[in-house]
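Open question from group meeting: does this chain pack into something compact, or does most of it stay loose? Before anyone orders reagents, we agreed to write out a predicted structure and look at it together. Recording both the input and the output here so the notebook holds the full record.
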Amino acid sequence: MFRSVAIQLTDATSVGEARRAGQRLGSELGFSEIKNGELGLIVTEAARNAVSHAGSGELVISTFRCQDALCADVLALDQGQGISDLGRAFQDGYSTLGTPGEGLGAIRRMGSQMDVFSGKSGTALFARVMEGDPAAEGALEIGGIAAPYPGETVCGDAMAWEQKRGRTVIVMADGLGHGPLAAEAAAEAVASFRRHASEQPGEMVARMHDALKKTRGAAASVAEIRPLAGTLTYAGVGNIAATVLSSVFSRSLVSHGGTLGHTAARIQEFKMEWPRGAALIMHSDGLKTRWDLSAYPGLLARKPALIAGVLFRDFKRGRDDASVVVVKSTT
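Structure tokens returned:
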């Protein structure tokens, strides 16, 4: 199951806390000792970089399975002055603070993937550590965050996805409220999705409605993308926001009102074009809805997890669980 942990970066001691959290998550995921060591080093360098250059920030570690691979995504998010010369920052030995200057270069060498977005709103650094067989060639790229309400140990938001035979399906669920009972409802929605992932989005949402009757209920949405056919089919109930972005349009997707498990008067599928180069962004109401990627030139071309990280950093409300997932075409 997709899991995220967020660590506030305030000083040098929080770097050690982030490393320990990362290695604990890696061990629970099933990483080998070598891969878990690489994860620990990447977390350490990413957290130290944020504290050293911005003074503070947030580090989010997310773990999940991707086809037959184990994946850990590291996002270091700060609101500092940004990196003035990103190209030079990757060169070993370059530092503006008199440090050895090996952080970004080391992360790039050890990570399976890496991406950085830096500007006037701060710096977001993404690195993925992966062990095993990656997703099939031509699969969509996916990245996200699901972080709990501040002070909670479990997240009432959940997400999952499956990719098979040119078809990608994604679910996002937001359990009513926050805390353990919200997490239980969101987990039940994901479990129902897993059992019925071969069905159509509207059918899956209807199945969730039945499965969630024993819980406090949740909002949930399911999107099915068929890149070769160029189609996206979507169904949802409750306040999950979803937007499709491309070079020619931005379109919000429709979820009907209600709470799955309690009141869902209408479950309806909507179908639209999925153009080449498109991106789908889904998020819970833990994020504000008035974001605009045009304010971040070049961000849409970056890795999905990096896009999710910037939106999380700049638009989370801070008084609820917060989740965002981004899905992109690879071409």
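Observations to bring back to the group:
The radius of gyration is 19 Å.
The chain has two domains: 3-133, 141-328.
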